[in-house]
Amino acid sequence: xxxxxxxxxxxxxxxxxxxxxxxxxxxxxxxxxxxxAREALLERYLAALExxxxxxxxxxxxxxxxxxxxxxxxxxxxxxxxIDRLFALLRRHFAWLPEAEVTVEANPESLDAGRLEAFxxxxxxxxxxxxxxxxxxxxxxxxxxxxxEEVRRAVALxxxxxxxxxxxxxxxxxxxxxxxxxxxxxxxxxxxxxEHLSAYALELExxxxxxxxxxxxxxxxxxxxxxxxxxxxxxxxxxxAGYRQVEISNWARPGFASRHNLLYWRxxxxxxxxxGAASRLGxxxxxDAGDVEAYLxxxxxxxxxxxxxxxxxxxxxxxxxxxxxxxxxxxxxxDAFRRRFGxxxxxxxxxxxxxxxxxxxxxxxxxRLRLTEEGCFLANRVMVEFLPPAS
Length: 391
Ligand code: SF4
Description:
Blueprint: E1 14-20, E2 22-23, E3 35-36, H1 39-60, E4 65-72, H2 80-93, E5 96-106, H3 113-121, E6 126-132, H4 136-141, H5 148-161, E7 166-172, H6 179-191, E8 196-201, H7 209-215, H8 224-240, E9 244-247, E10 250-252, H9 259-265, E11 269-273, E12 278-281, E13 284-288, H10 292-300, E14 307-310, H11 314-327, E15 332-333, H12 334-341, H13 345-348, H14 352-358, E16 362-365, E17 368-371, H15 379-383
Parallel strand pairs: 1-4, 1-11, 2-3, 4-5, 5-6, 6-7, 7-8
Antiparallel strand pairs: 8-10, 9-10, 12-13, 13-14, 15-17, 16-17
Helix pairs in contact: 1-2, 1-10, 2-3, 6-8
The structure holds iron/sulfur cluster.
Iron/sulfur cluster binds next to loops.
């Protein structure tokens, strides 16, 4: 499995993330940091982002990024001229390798030839499409504004433009979703030839339309067994279609694992820009406070935007490395852990490995601790063993 992944860098690799906090409306399950995409706000955002880039650029001091990820929100709400400005301001302040993975997230209905051209002339080489489901009825429930036709059209446009690396996001465990409907969604995206797939179980966030319906007892969700069956179906069907499982929720054709996502799971380094972005750099981590208006006002006044710092002491960093490393099918390299943190995993988390192995949800293979195939769906039961004691 691991031979399909780019090898970890000897020096910590660094990536760049840009949060574009705009959507035309809010989907029923989404609690991301975002505001309605109004022209005046887009302009203020680009000016503020330039100031934040200027402030943070010295942290990378010309260190080239292995990946650039423009996420949202919906970056494809930007017009072609605004896309050019976004990349120009990034180029003024940061560097990325010529072979860097450059991803942009897009929604099928907002992607057109003009935007695609703008992405390509700015070096975008990977597109992540929010497909989510294949059935118009389910998409309506999710508050999505696209159907299967828009997905087909977006894929055809992207291929015509020359993009060779397309990723699709899917969600399972949706209200009213049957196992057969889930199969149909998986078969549709594999049939369209996506190189990479993310499939996440629905998470109910209290401050969403779904969260409120659930609290009122009006959201008919599939049972736990059915959701587990959907996950196993994804594992089987995608393996049969030539995808390798890279991580609990991510599958890729060989050579198409996301370099940027690997930064997160391998607890490497990244710098985030934008009102909902997080950063992990130089032994520290912080996130922008998630308030778009406060972000814009602070930067317009020449101040840094409000940020929250996390505590990243040794044990917390070690815990993150194991918990995120376990998400990867390659698992946690025990020698690398000892070299990085100065003690064996077993001493950092006494008894945890033994209990994880005894549960049958984890295994030791080739000097790595990793989840079993069954353990992927029940990963939290293993990860909880590796939380720092105070958690
Ligand atoms: S398009 Fe994506 S970011 Fe925007 S509201 Fe829907 S789920 Fe959230």
